[in-house]
Write a structure and sequence with these properties.
Helicase, Ruva Protein, domain 3, globular, Rossmann fold, alpha/beta, about 325 residues
Length: about 325
């Protein structure tokens, strides 16, 4: 079969199912000024059935972003404020005894929504974090003797405050690995902040309209699986991940003392899926090296363990990933 015709047909199918991206971007753009990268990453996670760990200072529109996206997709949204006294049952639900019926009734928790904002996840103790992470992985929860499936789609956006460390419970590396992306949010550009300021001063409030259905998202997920990933791209992804484990094999011997462990196979899978989603939301039916490079930081920054030597030399995982990307041969 002619490969050119296949790619042509595939491009038509991808274009057909990615039209909603521009609709979403336009509708969300009425409320969310700037933060285009955060919006794209939310969309990537939604399309690939992944979850996001978001690190940023307060007031950078993290809550606004996921709430606006849920409204534009006509999906259920729940915000869970993580605190030290939170219990697993406060998230997943519990069983209450009904005196009138003389039986236990299941009360579902806020986890039963399409979009979950887990605000300041590192403020809750380990057992609460584990309850959320288990639900993320299994996409079901058990309350009493009954098991309930979570809604589809199901997206968790967990936030961490990078400056307030007192009274927090750091997420273990094995648990952060369950997040497909770790996105670091920075301050907006001055022009974007000026626009936000003027909107607030003018009292403008745009009512977000649902422009995309959940069925469209499910269909887009199916189309995403057809985005072509060449063998050379697969090798490129595997080389980048392998370089986080054995940098000396990729002409980076100086990094060896700085890395205690590299990305797991889950990192390879997430990098391939994120690159594929990046191509899809740009209306392309095939992945190019630039797609991989564009998402590599967000996929890998929380999957690399640093030694004390790295901390002493003020070296971050971002520094290492950028150097790896520059060093690994591009197909």
């Amino acid at each position: 079969m002619d490969e050119t015709i296949d790619i042509q047909k595939l491009s038509e199918r991808v274009n057909e199912h990615s039209v909603f991206v521009d609709l979403l971007r336009a509708e969300v753009g009425h409320v969310l000024i700037g933060q285009q990268r955060m919006f794209d990453r939310l969309l990537m996670a939604l399309l690939t059935n992944g979850h996001i760990l978001l690190e940023g200072l307060p007031g950078l529109a993290k809550t606004l972003a996921i709430k606006t996206l849920s409204e534009a997709i006509s999906a259920d949204f729940a915000r869970i404020q993580f605190t030290p006294d939170l219990l697993p049952s406060d998230i997943v639900g519990t069983q209450m005894f009904n005196l009138q019926r003389n039986e236990f009734t299941t009360m579902k928790g806020p986890i039963f929504a399409n979009f979950i904002l887990a605000d300041e996840i590192n403020r809750a103790p380990a057992k609460v974090q584990s309850a959320l992470l288990e639900a993320m992985q299994e996409r079901q929860v058990t309350i009493g003797d009954s098991t309930f499936d979570l809604p589809d789609p199901f997206l968790v956006l967990a936030t961490q405050n990078p400056i307030d460390q007192e009274g927090t419970y750091t997420l273990p590396e094995a648990q952060t690995d369950r997040f497909m992306l770790k996105v670091v949010i920075t301050y907006p550009h001055m022009e974007e902040e000026r626009e936000v300021l003027r909107m607030q001063l003018a009292g403008k409030k745009h009512k977000v309209r649902p422009v995309v259905s959940l069925n469209q998202i499910r269909e887009a997920r199916q189309a995403l699986h057809e985005v072509y990933v060449d063998e050379k791209i697969e090798k490129y992804i595997l080389d980048i991940v392998a370089a986080t484990r054995n940098p000396e094999n990729y002409r980076l011997p100086s990094f060896k003392p700085y890395i205690s462990f590299g990305a797991s196979p889950r990192g390879s899978i997430s990098l391939a899926l994120a690159a594929r989603a990046n191509a899809f939301i740009r209306g392309r039916a095939f992945v190019i090296p630039e797609d991989v490079r564009e998402v590599a930081l967000d996929v890998l920054r929380h999957r690399i363990g640093l030694t004390y030597e790295a901390e002493a030399d003020e070296l971050t995982t971002d520094n290492i990933i950028k150097e790896i990307i520059n060093q690994v041969e591009v197909p």
